Amino acid sequence: MKVSIVGCTHAGTFLAMNILKEHPDWEVSVFERNDNLSFLSCGIALWVSDRVSDPNKMFYASPDALTQMGAHMYMQHDVTDIDFDNKKLIVKNLVSGENFEQDYDKLVITTGSAPIIPKIPGIDSSRVMLCKNWTNANELKENANNIKSAIVIGAGYIGAELAEGYATLGKETTLIDALPNVLSKNLDPNMSAIAEKDYKDNGVTLGMNEKVISFEETDHSVIVKTDKSSYEADIAVMCVGFRPNTNMFADKFKTLPNGALIVDKYMHTSMKDVFSAGDAASVHYNPTNDDQYIPLATNSVRQGILVGKNIEKDTMAYMGTQASSAVELFGRTYAASGLTKVHADVLNKRVAEVSMEDNYRPEFMLSTTPVLMNLVWDPETRVVLGGALTSKYDVSQSANLLSLAIQKNVTIDELSMVDFLFQPNFDKPVNYVSALAGAAVEKANSMNEVTE
Asked: Which residues are catalytic?
């Protein structure tokens, strides 16, 4: 069996390893444009702000490691065309310029994502940078010590982390986003407000609800003009999101509106013998029970593993995703899984919500820390659909708990009565997640009383 893998970051790396483990006699060829693979780009902001022990440890695999497992590695090779009818790849060696054909029996498209680069006047300036891959990471790290100021455009997780990183280095930092709040797509306004206060308290200028309309390079800076204001700094970094890297062939498949290849629960695309995974593909989003585009490394890894298991025959179905995530900003944890109320409103999905704050452990301890929590559920079925937490205490693993609850269709009633441990060092007799679910039960019951 000849398997060709186009693209090798997270999904491509994991599926190659799994295919080689389960089918060591198969011919597995991997084509990758770059000279590296498996780079954990989520660590870029941490490296730039001097919180990474060794950047080489930001790679969890290498071309040599896959070669030793039996893969035929074609690094710095670009697949320029695919003849799906005859099962052939047209490949260009980016070093030598040589072109050649490669046939396959099974094809896996894991071409990943590309940064969204809006067509804004002046965006081609050398002072306007990106934050996506190993090359970008090196550029940002190299100039971090030389700049005194930076403008970060995009207040999602990547931009929020990078802005926090520059602020901790003592750089004059500005964070701009066209949406109303920091982390608008990840958190509801009550938690965004906390993040925004922390940014301001640490000297960061916020330009929320502002659309960038142009860049102007001077001899020593870049001027970023928005529809409401103007900002100047040594550099600007674009962090406005990603799009699936499928332009070359998306018109041959069933796709989402943005070009992500729609895959079924076994990772098949709409074309026979062609699989996809990772940032090039759709994911099944459990809180809304539909296909969406959610480019996260965790989704890529799981989908890649599944391709490896299903490449010969359908063996293991995809469980879907809750898009669980977390970030730490200025010593505060933000963790979430599933729907927020704001996201539900955008999708026109009717939900109920509750918010509460509670200390994570008893007040008789010498110290404790408050946790602000939101929970979202279906008002008809009472099934948990999403939740988020923020605290100076590390509440990140509670998002994983909420993820499992959403995955298994746990109701707010069940979540309020789960057998959580109690020990004063760690929590109260009623764990804070149980307390949150209990508040949801009370609100749901009171809402039912009103409608009866």
From this structure: 10, 42
